[in-house]
């Protein structure tokens, strides 16, 4: 008699919420764009940081549920490089844009990565707790990075975080080339 | 004209989105070795090392804003060169370009050349494409692409940082000679590589 599927990408033994947290913590391709978004939002100011912190986790959960419903899409893996490339470049260039623009970027990133995470749990019966676990760490990460950059008072700290953005974008560019090769 | 260009871009985007990728079972494996391989890759080439340090030295010698513009823009331009190399786009004279970067950047530091910022940025950018292309064309298959790329970019960035830290000596009179001497040494190393590339 077939049993229920209980697929888990990471199994901590502590339950699905912790599995979701560790899954996100072990996914640098999802962490780096969020760090880049946090840097960009922090450099732009308080309203941008607030928009990112509010919208990103909500979009993550919402589109994660959609991903759980529809399952993985057959997309070219090179697409994963685009959030790194775009958000890293924006952080490196410290481009001026309205707060709703930053919020839109947070929405797009949350939709893309949230869908990816949600679709990975589509075969799991208890995917929702894992998704909320990952979204919790997403919230902590975006809040921490954007707040740290907001509080950066010296010129060299702002330059240092822009260098991190530049390195993220450069890695994204190489990753894109790698994926298209 | 504009409509056809938009249609072409739309077709490209659609083809890109729908193209099937390679199977990636066991996602996330090989991260540590990929990072280490990528980190070591730019450090093992002396021609690359001296040119990266020269960029940092020159940036420090030129002062603000070059000192912070170079480490932000260089990795991006270099990655674009790597992107071209990964795609297999043909680029002749890469080794000569890399050797020339050591010669000219070393000479710029030695002679304390102070061109306009945009001219310095363009010169460094052209050399960045050569360096990135050479590494992109040599990237090994089978490594974790993200970790390899991160290691590669971080190592290059740290080489700039080494150059910038040495270049900070420039603010003292005795340090000026040290920085210029380092530029001269880099130029000499570049000349050896240029000789080999042309031979």
TrEMBL record, chain A:
Keyword Transmembrane helix on entry: yes
InterPro entries: HupE_UreJ (IPR007038)
Pfam family, one: HupE_UreJ
Claim: Lipid metabolism is one of the keywords in the record: no
Transmembrane segments: 20-41, 53-71, 130-150, 159-180
Keywords associated with the record: Membrane, Transmembrane, Transmembrane helix
Superkingdom of origin: Bacteria
Protein name: Hydrogenase/urease accessory protein HupE
Organism whose genome encodes this protein: Rhizobium viscosum (Arthrobacter viscosus)
UniProtKB/TrEMBL annotation, chain B:
Keywords recorded for this protein, A-Z: Membrane, Signal, Transmembrane, Transmembrane helix
Pfam families: HupE_UreJ
Taxonomic superkingdom: Bacteria
Cited InterPro entries: HupE_UreJ
Segments passing through the bilayer: 35-60, 67-87, 93-110, 117-134, 146-169, 181-198
UniProt KW Nucleotidyltransferase keyword: no
UniProt key word Magnesium: no
Signal peptide: 1-25
Listed name of the protein: Urease accessory protein
Species this chain originates from: Rhizobium viscosum
Species classification: Bacteria, Pseudomonadati, Pseudomonadota, Alphaproteobacteria, Hyphomicrobiales
């Amino acid at each position: 008699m077939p049993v229920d599927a209980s697929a888990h990408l990471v199994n901590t033994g502590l339950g699905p919420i912790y599995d979701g947290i560790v899954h996100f913590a072990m996914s640098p391709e999802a962490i780096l764009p969020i760090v880049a978004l946090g840097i960009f939002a922090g450099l732009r100011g308080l309203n941008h940081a607030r928009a990112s912190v509010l919208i990103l986790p909500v979009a993550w959960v919402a589109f994660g549920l959609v991903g759980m419903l529809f399952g993985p899409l057959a997309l070219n893996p090179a697409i994963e490089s685009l959030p790194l490339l775009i958000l890293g470049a924006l952080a490196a260039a410290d481009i001026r844009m309205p707060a709703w623009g930053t919020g839109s970027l947070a929405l797009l990133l949350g939709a893309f990565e949230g869908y990816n995470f949600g679709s990975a749990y589509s075969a799991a019966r208890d995917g929702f707790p894992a998704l909320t676990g990952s979204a919790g760490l997403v919230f902590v990460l975006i809040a921490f990075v954007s707040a740290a950059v907001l509080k950066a008072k010296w010129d060299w700290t702002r330059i240092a975080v822009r260098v991190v953005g530049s390195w993220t974008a450069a890695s994204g560019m190489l990753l894109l080339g790698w994926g298209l090769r | 004209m504009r409509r056809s260009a938009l249609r072409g871009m739309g077709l490209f985007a659609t083809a890109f989105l729908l193209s099937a990728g390679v199977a990636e079972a066991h996602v996330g494996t090989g991260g540590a070795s990929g990072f280490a391989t990528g980190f070591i890759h730019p450090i093992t080439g002396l021609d690359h090392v001296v040119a990266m340090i020269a960029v940092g030295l020159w940036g420090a010698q030129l002062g603000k804003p070059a000192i912070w513009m170079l480490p932000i823009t260089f990795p991006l331009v270099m990655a674009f060169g790597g992107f071209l190399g990964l795609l297999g786009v043909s680029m002749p004279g890469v080794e000569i370009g890399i050797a020339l970067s050591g010669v000219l950047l070393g000479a710029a530091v030695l002679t304390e050349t102070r061109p306009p910022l945009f001219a310095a940025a363009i010169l460094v950018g052209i050399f960045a494409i050569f360096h990135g292309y050479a590494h992109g064309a040599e990237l090994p298959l089978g490594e974790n692409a993200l970790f390899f790329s991160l290691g590669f970019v971080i190592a290059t960035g740290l080489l700039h940082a080494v150059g910038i830290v040495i270049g900070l000596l420039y603010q003292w009179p005795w340090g000026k000679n040290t920085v210029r001497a380092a530029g001269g040494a880099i130029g000499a190393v570049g000349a050896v590589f240029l000789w080999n590339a042309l031979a």
